[in-house]
Amino acid sequence: MQALLAVSRGIDAVTAFVGRAVKWLILVAVLVSAGNAIIRKAFDTSSNAWLELQWYLFGAVFMLAAAYTLQRNEHIRIDVLSSRLSKRTRDWIDLVCHIVFLLPFVGMMVWLSTPFLIDSYASQEMSMNAGGLIIWPAKAIILAGFILLLAQAFSEIIKRAAVIAGLIDEPYPQHAVPPLVQESMGGDQHGGRGR
């Protein structure tokens, strides 16, 4: 299990690096958007390429940050239900759902996105909009995002199994107790550990 935990730590390091790096794409998207608006207002001209670049940047942030969101345990949960369950039950639900739902879905998306990208690259597919950008870099970001999410799913399965087995502490103790339970307990409870 220690070898698997080492693999998990490596995946987590890559995911964290990418997750922290892509936040700068938000700034770039804002600058591109502002520049496009200024040029349009000041010079009464615009380009579909600038608009499409904004879409590419937004898509890149969304796709490449998905694995980081999963790693940080910040994905959406139904707290109304999960807050009523024990930590061990939630851990088992996470483990089973990652194996039964997340892995097959993300694996299928990697499988389907690969020929999608290859065909686009081979044909040098261009946007149908006048002055638009080439399409394959956006499709490459889709594939990269799903590959990163697939790797992170494996990492989360390894960590969750290790937590259940008592081999490691909760990686994100602030999520050990759902917010509703924290409130009912009268404060900031983290399963006995601090942030």
From TrEMBL:
Keywords linked to the UniProt accession: Cell inner membrane, Cell membrane, Membrane, Transmembrane, Transmembrane helix, Transport
Subcellular compartments: Cell inner membrane
Keyword Cell inner membrane attributed: yes
InterPro entries: DctQ (IPR055348), TRAP_DctQ (IPR007387)
Similarity field: Belongs to the TRAP transporter small permease family.
Subunit structure as annotated in this protein's UniProt entry: The complex comprises the extracytoplasmic solute receptor protein and the two transmembrane proteins.
Membrane topology: Multi-pass membrane protein
Domain of life: Bacteria
Pfam families in UniProt: DctQ (PF04290)
Full protein name: TRAP transporter small permease protein
Function, in words: Part of the tripartite ATP-independent periplasmic (TRAP) transport system.
UniProt domain Tripartite ATP-independent periplasmic transporters DctQ component: residue ranges: 31-161
